[in-house]
Amino acid sequence: MATDFKSIPIIDISALLAKCDDPKMAEDPGVSDVVRQLDQACREAGFFYVKGHGIPDSLLKEVKSVAHKFFDLPYEEKIKIKMTAEAGFRGYQRVGENITKGIPDMHEAIDCYREVKEGMYGSLGKTMEGYNQWPCNPQNFKELMDVYIRLCTDLSRKIMRGISLALTGSPEEFEGGRAGDAFWVMRIIGYPVVPTADGPGPTNDIGCGAHTDYGLLTLVNQDDDITALQVRNLSGEWISAPPISGTFVCNIGDMLKIYSNGLYDSTLHRVINKSPRYRVCVAYFYETNFDTAVEPLETCIQRSGRAKKFERAVYGEHLVSKVRTNFG
């Protein structure tokens, strides 16, 4: 469970990445130090920055740059990839269409998911069946995002090996039937300077309302010069997560909270853009296998010293429920 943290730790994960596919990685002192820091961050805040992650800073900046270019386009151009249920809830949402706890969020976004082919997960996956809708302008948008998603997927898998070591002593707990065929979600989000909506509708000053994430691990790539992300500590204080160039802000999600039997918590966070400039954030979500039934790990039940705290939850059912609720 989160503590009364006042800041979010920064973790250099380069030692973990260097040994991540070594069968003896757990014996390496550098890996052990990173694992200790990950464990502490997940227990105390549920949030941490990572540096030394190996993804070029130039790519992090380029991804945000093309997102800015897309959101600068006229509404008539952006709506060409409008999100619909028929498209598997993939595509563009205008300001105010995303809903958090019944309140419209003051952001616009492109939502994309790992491809789900017809019949891939039977009735469980029917809602999410579809292909991502990518804009034709900027011209390199799809190609760039394909590279970025591939790198974020690989990085997330490696960070999860460290977290697995911290929780269970084995680096492979979140592979195979749990996350060996990991689902992913990505939201490319734009936060206007002044709350507005295209056409009539309610507005407020909350770019994204207080929420927790659904899956295992989130990588947040935010504009370098605007502080807008806030994380709530145990006392209810909102702690800013200012951008640190070249890093990702990471946080753990609901499925990891369940696996850990509450040793780790998925911490509430929100976004309020008080800057006089438009803000972009690209959030990549690394999840379990879509059809995985998630429940507390026996190791974590023993370590927590309490009975099983959570009932089993099928990730795909959890995601579909959230999608239908949020995307009004």
UniProtKB/TrEMBL annotation:
Catalyzed chemical reaction(s): L-homoarginine + 2-oxoglutarate + O2 = 6-hydroxy-L-homoarginine + succinate + CO2
Pfam families: 2OG-FeII_Oxy, DIOX_N
InterPro entries: DIOX_N, IPNS-like_FE2OG_OXY, IPNS-like_sf, Iron_ascorbate_oxido_reductase, Oxoglu/Fe-dep_dioxygenase_dom
Localization terms from the record: Cytoplasm, Cytosol
Keyword Iron recorded: yes
Principal location: cytoplasm
Protein keywords: Cytoplasm, Dioxygenase, Iron, Metal-binding, Oxidoreductase
GO CC, any one term: cytosol
Stored SUPFAM superfamilies: Clavaminate synthase-like
Fe2OG dioxygenase domain: residues covered: 181-288
GO molecular function: 2-oxoglutarate-dependent dioxygenase activity; metal ion binding
Highest taxon in the source lineage: Eukaryota
PANTHER family in alphabetical order: 2-OXOGLUTARATE (2OG) AND FE(II)-DEPENDENT OXYGENASE SUPERFAMILY PROTEIN-RELATED
Annotated family: Belongs to the iron/ascorbate-dependent oxidoreductase family.
Name of this protein: Fe2OG dioxygenase domain-containing protein
Origin organism lineage: Eukaryota, Viridiplantae, Streptophyta, Embryophyta, Tracheophyta
Name of the coding gene: LOC115950851
